[in-house]
Design the sequence.
């Protein structure tokens, strides 16, 4: 009796094998699973970092701070997944906590992109919603998205803590964050899948910390600036201190750039030559937010971080580079 050839069906289940459906060889359909399983083994080493993030997040959000999250494309979906778990619930019932996915406000996002440029869509919302002690979590498989790098820079100037979920290190976002979890995987799709694993692990660690009462304790160390001036008050009556005053000053400066000669709100350079919000260099040659160099040739925020990432990459010759699925 002749055995069935590849591409033919046999039996009630009509099991189909081989190249008849476009497969290039045995196991092609499961190669993706093999890549994921291999990357997952190395990913386990990030467990302690995620546990630490979950505990710190419970303390901060329990004290009235807020989590801001942002990403592009598929990473935006992951960001919104995380905020939904915190505002709603992950497994067991618990109080809601403040978490905002910055891309989800489509009216604000498109208005900012139209008026100030795409690089400002997250940075401007960070300035609007963020306060000292808040956490900004940025997701990017490439680690090179200019609008996320601009948001990280703005967050630092406002006194927020910046965490990043990225692909392979080194990358600009990793270097621009206070703490980063870099997935060591060759494909963007695999990186994105492990980011979802990280989101669920973070929710698990967060819920466990809440159950231990960490959300009732407040931040472990609100910072020397806050301790030095307990009279200042931020959101919800919590100590704001010097960092809060600096943040308010930064937000105030955002609205008066056209008056004092710095870049105007429409992104055009001001009389003093300062860069506009959209990063266009001013008359004095100052670099813009998006990293375009000014007339003096100095790189902007994004350009500096990209340069650092490239330098770090050159320090490790032969290191594999992850193929990108766009800048997500």
Sequence:
């Amino acid at each position: 009796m002749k055995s069935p050839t590849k591409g033919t069906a046999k039996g009630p289940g009509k099991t189909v094998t081989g190249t008849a459906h476009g497969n290039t060889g045995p196991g092609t359909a499961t190669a993706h699973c093999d890549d994921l399983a291999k990357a997952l083994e190395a990913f386990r080493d990030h467990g302690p970092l995620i546990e630490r993030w979950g505990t710190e997040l419970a303390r901060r959000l329990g004290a009235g701070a807020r989590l801001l999250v942002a990403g592009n494309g598929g990473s935006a979906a992951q960001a919104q997944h995380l905020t939904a778990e915190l505002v709603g619930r992950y497994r067991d019932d618990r109080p809601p906590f403040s978490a905002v996915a910055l891309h989800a406000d489509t009216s604000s996002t498109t208005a900012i992109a139209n008026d100030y440029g795409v690089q400002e869509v997250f940075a401007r919302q960070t300035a609007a919603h963020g306060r000292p002690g808040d956490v900004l979590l940025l997701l990017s498989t490439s680690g090179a998205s200019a609008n996320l790098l601009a948001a990280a820079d703005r967050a630092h100037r406002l006194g927020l803590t910046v965490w990043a979920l990225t692909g392979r290190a080194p990358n600009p976002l990793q270097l621009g964050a206070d703490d980063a979890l870099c997935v060591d995987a060759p494909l963007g799709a695999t990186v994105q899948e492990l980011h979802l694993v990280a989101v669920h692990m973070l929710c698990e660690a967060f819920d466990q910390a809440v159950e231990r009462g960490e959300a009732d304790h407040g931040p472990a160390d609100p910072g020397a600036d806050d301790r030095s001036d307990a009279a200042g008050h931020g959101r919800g009556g919590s100590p704001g201190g010097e960092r809060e005053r600096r943040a308010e000053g930064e937000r105030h400066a955002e609205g008066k750039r056209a008056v004092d000669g710095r870049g105007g709100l429409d992104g055009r350079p001001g009389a003093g030559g300062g860069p506009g919000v959209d990063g266009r260099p001013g008359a004095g040659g100052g670099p813009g937010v998006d990293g375009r160099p000014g007339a003096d040739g100095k790189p902007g925020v994004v350009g500096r971080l990209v340069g650092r990432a490239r330098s770090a990459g050159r320090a490790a010759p032969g290191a594999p580079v992850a193929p990108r699925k766009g800048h997500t």
Observations:
- The beta strands are 67-71, 99-101, 135-140, 161-166, 179-182.
